[in-house]
Design brief:
The chain has one domain. Helices cover 74% and strands 0% of the residues. Helix 2 packs antiparallel against helix 11 and helix 3 runs antiparallel to helix 5. The radius of gyration is 19 Å and the shape is globular.
Length: 305
């Protein structure tokens, strides 16, 4: 039984690593025909419609009512703002570059946690500082080789995305620790869909989008959002929240591979060097003190992605 459980856990880990590496490709495809607001609305509305019945049956939504303020804050910083900015940035940046920039989330998470103080914060010293320096060097190399001057606006959008993805888990760990996580996710999707509905309706294309765009939206909503979160929380119950977020180390590799193979995006020296340095920096900066193996102190398996 133990081997079967271990094998199932491994398959869940592999599946989630791949699934959360897919969004960058399909966002890139969808925004060729849909505005960012329309894409975010469709993705969150469909994903929320799938998850809402699951959490409603368990009474998880009622448990959120006393915590509605941090739920709204989480929705803004983790879903509503990052997803629309990521979608807009991918109209100018390649999907592989977007995926690699998001890989810097653990670095920013450690920095935000340390600077904001509060319970569970990590002190910046020694290996963590070295990790931040290495990771930021990777980002600098990536941007220096792979970004044109007219892409700087999109890079600024990606910077906000990364900060939002880093702050979201901190909101969960400090202000929503005792409420059902799946309920928080479902509520955030529904709230985002409601917020973007007027913009999506006004910007919806007059002609029916192509089958490719429709398929991209469906995959983003069903596979990369609803199913991905179900798998993620199943992994958490099996291996714990820290080990479950290790999937974030593998998502960028999937994003780069898909972008290069399916969209013909370039694979440059900056891509390779930046990828290695960002992941090495994230590993050093987030490994718990006194632990020789891998690990993370700030959960950052970006749900958007």
């Amino acid at each position: 039984m133990g081997e079967a459980r271990s094998g199932r856990t491994l398959w869940l880990f592999v599946a989630l690593s791949v699934i959360w590496g897919l969004p960058y490709l399909f966002i890139r495809v969808a925004v060729r025909e849909l505005t960012p607001a329309t894409l975010v609305f469709l993705r969150t509305a469909i994903g929320g419609a799938i998850l809402l019945p699951l959490v409603a049956r368990g009474g998880q939504l009622r448990a959120l009512l006393p915590h509605w303020r941090p739920v709204v804050l989480y929705t803004i910083v983790e879903v509503a703002v990052p997803w629309v900015l990521l979608s807009d940035a991918e109209r100018r940046l390649t999907s592989s570059l977007a995926g690699l920039l998001v890989a810097a989330v653990p670095l920013v998470g450690v920095g935000v946690s340390a600077l904001s103080g509060g319970p569970g914060h990590e002190r910046l010293a020694g290996r963590r500082v070295a990790g931040l320096v290495v990771g930021l060097l990777g980002v600098a190399i990536l941007l220096g080789f792979d970004v044109r001057t007219d892409d700087l606006g999109a890079v600024a959008e990606m910077a906000i995305v990364v900060v939002g993805y880093a702050v979201g888990p901190i909101v969960i760990s400090r202000r929503l620790r005792d409420v059902p996580a799946m309920g928080v996710v479902a509520a955030s999707l529904v709230l985002t869909a409601i917020g973007y509905a007027p913009f999506a309706i006004a910007q919806f294309p007059r002609a029916l989008p192509s089958s490719g765009a429709i398929a991209a939206v469906a995959i983003l909503a069903v596979l990369c959002t609803a199913l991905a979160f179900v798998i993620f929380f199943e992994l958490i119950t099996r291996v714990g929240p820290v080990r479950a977020t290790i999937v974030a180390f593998f998502n960028p590799a999937v994003a780069v591979a898909l972008g290069v193979a399916l969209l013909g995006e370039p694979f440059t020296f900056g891509t390779a060097a930046g990828f290695v340095l960002i992941l090495l920096g994230s590993f050093l900066a987030t490994r718990p003190a006194g632990q020789r193996g891998g690990g993370r102190t700030v959960p950052s398996a970006t749900p958007a992605e």
